[in-house]
Amino acid sequence: MSTIASIFAVLIVVLILLVIGNLVFSFIAERRNPPVGKFIECDGVRVHYREWGDAMAPCVVLFHGNGTMIQDFAISGLVDLLARRNRVLCFDRPGFGYTQRPRSRIWTPSAQAALFVKALEQIGARDPVVVGHSWGTLVAVALGLRGSGSLNRLQAGGELLIQPIANSMSARVKASGADAPSRAHLHGEEAPPRSPRVAKSKADLTQRATLRQTQ
Q1: Is there a single domain that holds both residue 142 and residue 114?
Q2: pLDDT tens across 52-81, in order?
Q3: Structural domain boundaries, residue 14
Q4: Considering just the CA atoms, what is the radius of gyration of the chain in Å?
C-alpha cells in the first residue's frame, strides 16, 4: 500500500470514529438531560417547548440565543417572575435543545419565524408579547416583520434582556420591590423604579463625567 493510500485509509478511520463518538456522546447527553417540555409537529419539524403560568393570562413568548436553550431562561429566574401574571412560552429554536433542524432548508431568522408562527397558532397563543435574547432577537424581529395579526408587541433584546439574564431582569425587579414585571413594563411604557442605591450610583457617575469634561 502506498503512502497516500495509507494516509487516506487513516483519515477514513478517524472520520468513522468521530461519527461514532458523536453519536455516543449525543445519546449519553440526551439520557442525562431528558426533555423538560412538550412536543408539537409543525411544518414537518418536531418542536420542543415549555409552558408556565395561567393559560388564560396574557401571553409572553421567549426566544433564546445561540448556545442556549429553554433551561437557560428557566434557571435565570425570569420565567418564574413572568409566570406570576402571564402565560409564558419558551421554545427551543431549530438545532438547539430538542427541536429538530432539518437540513433540507436554511434556517434563517425568517425561516424560524415562519415555523414559530405556525407553532404559536397550533398552541393557541393569542396576542403574545415576543421577547428575543441574543440571536433570538433576530427571530423575534423577523416574527414582528411578518405582520402576523396574532402578534401583539415585540420586545427584542435591549432593555429587558441583556447578559447575564439573571442580573438584568431579576436584579431590577428585586431592587424596585415589584412583585413581577407587568405587561406595561414589557411594552416599554414604564420602566420599573430604581432603588436609592442605583439612583445614587448613576448620579455619582454623571457627576464624575461632568468633572472630567470641565478639567
Answers
A1: yes
A2: 999 999 999 999 988 888 988 888 888 999
A3: 1-34
A4: 22
Residue with cell 461519527: 19
Are residues 14 and 78 both part of a single domain? no
Task: At 208, list the grid cell.
Answer: 464624575
Predicted confidence (pLDDT) per residue in 19-63, tens digit: 998 888 777 877 777 888 899 999 899 999 999 999 999 999 999
Residues 109, 181, single domain; the answer is yes
Asked whether the predicted pLDDT for residue 192 surpasses 90, the reply is: no
Whether 63 and 109 map to the same domain: the answer is yes
pTM comes to: 0.62
Based on the domain organization, do 130 and 154 belong to the same domain? yes
Q: Are residues 70 and 172 in the same domain?
A: yes
* Average pLDDT of span 171-192: 38
Pairing of strands 38-42, 45-52: antiparallel
Q: Shortest CA distance to 89 belongs to which of 46, 47, 43? A: 47
Give the residue from 43, 51, 146 showing the smallest Cα distance to 91: 51
Rounded Cα distance, 113 and 121, in Å: 12
